[in-house]
Amino acid sequence: MCTRERTAMRNGVEHLEHALEAESTHQAVFGVKGRSALHGLTGFDVIDQDPVDYMHCVLLGVVRTLISFWFDSKYHIELWYIRVFV
Prior knowledge:
The chain is mostly helical. It is 42% helix and 0% strand. The protein has 3 helices and no strands.
């Protein structure tokens, strides 16, 4: 999501350019560390057609937050804190 004005969304061509530059310089370029194995698929655009990784993008953050709420002692006075019962 772009939050700054005049910030363009990443596109497949730019992404591939950044990936190739990152590979040649051994440095990440705008967060891109290199080409994906999916770059080799004919007619497949890594940026527009790559599915969201539900486990890492959604579940990992949600579950981590819930575990923190339930077990972190800084929430010991909250109703949802369950560490004392486990």
